[in-house]
C-alpha cells in the first residue's frame, strides 16, 4: 500500500496551515485520500506551527508519528520533530535561516529576492521541492497553486515554486492513482454545508476556536449559500437571536466552544422550556476555562448532556468524520425542528479544524424531516397537547393565530401557570417529545460497528477518535464500536453492538473517561480506559502501542 | 383563552383572559392599557394587521404584560429580550417587534444587549418599565435608583449614583429616544405609537410607579413636565443631550417627558434581507459548492 506522511513547520504567521492544505491538495489531485492535522499555539506571530499531512490509497483520518518528508522553515521544526525522522526521511529546509540539517537546503531569501516575490511565497518553494522529492509532475503542483493562490500573486508563486523544484532531487515516486480527486475540507466546512443542506437560513456566532472557522466559512459563502451570517456582541446574544429567528419561523444554528457554551446555557434552558428549535455546533477544546484554545479534547460531553436547569430533552450528536459531520449536521437541524428541541453537534478541534478528503458519494442523503405545521383550523395554541408531545407550529404574522412562547411554566396557549396539573402536563409533554425522538433515532444506524464482530476484543470510541481507532484496531483484529448519538442514548442498539464484545477498551481524548461514565450510567461496562489528555489527538502508532498494553 | 380579538372592537379583544397579579395601583397597568390602545390604533390607522405585532417580555413584574395582552409574544429570560427581538425582526421584516423590559432587567442584566441594539440600529422598540426598583424580587436597588436608596439588599442606602439611561442611549447610537410617565397616559400612548412607527431602534424610558416598593408619584407629579414643540431639536445630538442632562435621575430638577431625539439611519436587519430573499434551493447550492470546491 502506498502511503506518505509529510510535516511542514515554521513560525505562526508563515502560512503553515495554507501550505499544509496545498500539500493535501497535491496528493488529493493524484487520487490519494488525505488527512491534515494542524498544530499551533494561541499566538499570531512566532512560536511553532506545524501541519502533518498523511496521504494514502485508503481512507485515513489520523496521522502517524514518522514522516517521509520534513519541510522546515526554522531550526525549531528540525529540533522539535527529531523523533519523526527515520532512515529514508527527506529533510528540506530554509537554508537562509541558519538551519542546521541534512537534506535539501533552499536559499529562500535569495530565491524570493531574485524572483521579486513576497515572503509568503516561501511556501511555494517548499511545495515545489516536495513535488520534486516525491517525483510528482510539475504540472500537478502548478495546478494546485492555480487553484489556491489569488491571480495577482500567481506568477510570483509559480516562479518561486519552480526554483524549489529545481533545487531538490527525486527521492521516491508517488504514483498517480485511478481514484477521483476528492475535495479536502475541514470538519467545520462539512458541518456548515450539512447545516445548509438541512435547511439552515441563518448562522449566528461569536468567534471562539475551534468553531470560528465555521463562522468564517459561512460568512465568506453567505451569498453562494443564500444564508444570513450574524456576529452579535456575545454568546448570550447569539443563542437568543437564534431563538428569536426560530420563533419567527427561520431555521438557525449557532457555533461555539466550551466557554461560549457556558454563556449559552441560559438560552439552552429557554429553548428547552419554550420548545424553540436551535442547533448548536459545540467544538471542544481543553478546559477548564480558557484551557488551551488551539488544542483538542473530548472533555465537554457531560457538560453538553447536562447543561441548563430543569429537565428537558435534547439531541446530542458526535460525528466521527466528515461524512458523518455533513449528514448529521443536516439531520440534527431537521430533527431539532421536528421535535422542537435543542440539538447539539459535538465536535472537537481535531475534527473541526482537521482537513480530510470528503467523499460526498459515500454519504447517504439524510432523510427529509418536516416540522409539524398548524393546519389553521380552530384556535391556535402553541403548546397544544398532541400525539408524541409535538405541537404544531405557527409563526407570528399568521392570520388567526396568536403565537405565545414562554420561559415560564405555561398552559397549552402559552400563558404562565403554576397550577399543579398544568405543570405536570407540561413536563410530561417535554418527556414525551424526548421519547418520540428516541424512537425515531432507533430507525437510524446510530451505533456504528467496524471490523470483525467475532474478534474477542472491542474498542469503544466517540467523535474524532473514530478514524485513529479503526486504523489501530486492524493491528489487533479488534472490533470498533462508536455511538453517533449520545442523547437520547441509543440503549437498544448499544446492547446489540456489544453482544460478544470480548475484552473492551474505551479510547478517549480526556482525563476521566467521559463516554465510559455515560455508559456506566446506562448500566454498560465501558471496559478499560485508554486516555490521552495533553491536547493532542492520538497518532495511529501511538494508539497501537497503548492498546498493545491493554488488549494484546 | 379565546381569540375573540378578531371580532368586534380590537382594543377590547386584546385583553387576554390571563389572571392579572400586579399590586393595586401599580404603574404597569397604565403601560399595559396604553400599549393595548397603541396596538389597536396603529392597526386601524396604519393598516398593520394585529398578527404582525410581537411583544417580548423580560423577567420582573413588567414582563407579565405580555401574558395580559392577546398578541403574539415571546416571554423570555432576564435581560435577554433584545437579541431575541432582533432575531424575530431579522426573520420577518413585516413584524412590529416591541420589547417590554424592566430597569433591573435591561440596565443591569441586559445592558450589553441594549447598547448593541442601539449601536446597530436594530429596528425594534424597547419600552423600559423604569420603576427604579426590583419589584418581583421584592425591593432591591436598580441601576436607576437614586443615591442613598435603601433597598432590601442595601439597608444602609446605596453609595452609587444612578445611570441616566437616555444619555447612555444617545451615546450608544439609538435613533429614537423618549421618556414617558405612567400617570400621563395619553401622552404615553402617543409616545408608544411614535416609537413603534419609527424605523430603527426606538427607546422609551417610562417612569413607572411601583406602588409597593418605590412610590414616587408625588415626586414625579411635582417635577415632570411635557416637552413643548421647539423646546428641543430632536434631529440634533447636542440639543437632545442638553435636554437629557437636565435631570440625572438623582438630584432635584425638572423632569422632561416626550421625545428627545429622533433621526433616520440605515436599519441593521435590512442589510441581510437580500441574502435569503426568494426561497432559494439551498440544497442545490450546497451540491454546487462541493462540486466546485476551491
Ligand atoms: C438570570 C436571573 N437572575 C435573577 C433573576 C431573578 N429576578 C427576577 S425579576 C428580577 C428583578 C426585576 O427587576 P426589574 O427588571 O426592575 O423588574 P420589575 O420587577 O421591577 O418590573 C430578578 C433579579 C432571574 N429571573 N434571572
Ligand atoms: S411590586 Fe411594584 S412593580 Fe411589581 S406589581 Fe407591585 S407595584 Fe407593580
Describe this structure in words.
The complex is a heterodimer of chains A (552) and B (294). Chain A has 552 residues and is an alpha/beta fold. Helices cover 38% and strands 20% of the residues of chain A. An 8-stranded mixed β-sheet of chain A has the order 6-5-4-1-3-2-14-7. The model of chain A has no long low-confidence stretch (mean pLDDT 96). In chain B, strands 2-1-3-4-6-5-8-7 form an 8-stranded mixed β-sheet, sandwiched between helices. Chain B is an alpha/beta fold and 294 residues long. Helix content of chain B is 36%, strand content 15%. β15 of chain A pairs parallel with β2 (72-75) of chain B. Iron/sulfur cluster (SF4) binds at residues 22-23, 26, 28, 61, 131, 135, 210-213 of chain B.
Question: Which structural traits does this protein have?
Answer:
heterodimer, A: 552 residues, alpha/beta, 8-stranded mixed beta sheet, 7-stranded mixed beta sheet, B: 294 residues, 36% helix, globular, binds thiamine diphosphate, binds iron/sulfur cluster
Global shape of chain A: globular
What composes the largest sheet of chain A? 8 strands, mixed
From N to C, what is the helix and strand string of chain B? HHEHEHEHHEHEHEHEHEHH
**Uncertain parts of chain B:** 1-9
Short précis:
The complex is a heterodimer of chains A (552) and B (294). Chain A is an alpha/beta fold.
How is this fold's topology laid out?
The complex is a heterodimer of chains A (552) and B (294).
Chain A: E1 3-12, H1 16-29, E2 33-39, E3 46-56, E4 67-72, H2 75-80, E5 85-94, E6 104-106, H3 108-114, H4 122-133, H5 138-148, H6 151-167, E7 184-186, H7 187-197, E8 202-205, H8 212-220, H9 222-225, E9 228-230, H10 235-247, E10 252-256, H11 258-274, E11 278-284, H12 301-306, E12 315-317, H13 322-339, E13 342-348, H14 349-353, E14 355-357, E15 404-406, H15 420-441, E16 447-450, E17 457-461, H16 466-476, E18 479-483, E19 485-487, H17 491-497, E20 503-508, H18 514-521, E21 528-531, H19 540-551
Parallel strand pairs in A: 1-4, 4-5, 5-6, 8-9, 8-10, 10-11, 11-13, 12-13, 17-18, 17-20, 20-21
Antiparallel strand pairs in A: 1-3, 2-3, 2-14, 7-14, 12-19, 16-18
Chain B: H1 10-13, H2 28-46, E1 53-57, H3 65-68, E2 72-75, H4 81-91, E3 96-102, H5 103-109, H6 111-120, E4 125-130, H7 165-172, E5 176-181, H8 185-197, E6 202-207, H9 217-223, E7 224-226, H10 237-244, E8 255-262, H11 273-276, H12 282-291
Parallel strand pairs in B: 1-2, 1-3, 3-4, 4-6, 5-6, 7-8
Antiparallel strand pairs in B: 5-8
Bound molecules: thiamine diphosphate and iron/sulfur cluster.
